[in-house]
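Supplementary Data S3. Sequence and structure tokens for construct A.
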Amino acid sequence: MRVRNRKGAGELLANHPQYVISNPEECRGKWSEIFGNDHPIHIEVGSGKGAFITGMARQHPDINYIGIDIQLSVLSYALDKVVEADVPNVKLLRVDGSSLTNYFAPAEIGRLYLNFSDPWPKKRHEKRRLTYKTFLETYQEILPEKGEIHFKTDNRGLFEYSLASFSQYGMTLQQVWLDLHASDFEGNVMTEYEEKFSNKGQVIYRVEARF
């Protein structure tokens, strides 16, 4: 998700240390201590403007959530939603999704969400896709044995690629939705993109994959 630079975004993030972690490297292996409880920790890589992470935190107060995005302005909009919702079980990180092992110890994360990731459709950009094998290696390191990735997209090409990538990596596809909003799936929390695309009648794909 790309947005125009937001004036004062850096200052806004700095003014909310209760939500925005400025030194995530120092938190590695200590996230339960940071949250002040031993609840499961779920992360969203590429959290965008925060609708999903905020909605999930409100729906599941007994789970801790960490939203990750590299873009300063985007993360500042996510912070707006977190502050408005007043959800204490959310933290935000401005870091790159390829470096997660710098911030999380092995098996420290209970579940990982990928929502409407950049499809990088050109073959030469395959390694940038968040479901490419090198990313899966990183995710596997911070997730527990049989840890899960929950993935949603409107892009059929990326979805097909991701199903193959998960399978080739040896993951188990637990459940696949070819039209999420026409299914009986309960408790779905939409992202900004998801709401936009579904309003246009586009199909939303979803898969739960387990290591």
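Construct B, processed identically:
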Amino acid sequence: LFTQNILHSRSYSSALQAVELLKEEYEDPEIYVFDTKAASIGEGLLVLEAVRLKKEGKSIEETLEWLESNYLKVHSWVTVDDLKYLERGGRISKASATLGSLLSVKPIITVDKEGRLTNVDKVRGRNKSIQTIVNETVKTIVAPLDQIVYVAYAGDLESAEKAKRLLEEQIKMKDVKLYPLGPTIASHTGYGCIAIFSMGISR
């Protein structure tokens, strides 16, 4: 089982409880819960690698060992276009959201080592925010020719395509794929969220 953890994640706790229930019904079920300290496609990158290892014939113990060594190498660089969704989620104050919107301030967000969404910077303007998350991805990526980089988006396909184009202009990669954000994440970020996911140096 894989779970995402934005600190004290309910999904992680629920997964642990589910395993305990299964242990009551089945004798020694071989189920492991792995906290990815990631979300959305960041978690998906680890799932894809686990599937690849399984197809290569690796044991579950070898797969878990790989996950433990690599889960903090997943990078998530995010920007949102509308601050009201962060304000509704309690991440910024109403005053900050109002002032930021008037000044066209766009936050730059990443996922830290504890799995928390962390605001690490703010820039003026949509174009600058997209360029910034592209730059941060390029700074932290490792072995780009061996991996697929994902650009996720909430509704704004045009901006996602722009992020892809900027990535491809800066660095050669195996591939860049666009992917719509799921409804759970998108409901927190709002229309216009752009997120780039890659494997890189340890967070």
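The mean pLDDT is 86. DSSP finds eight helices and eight strands in the chain.
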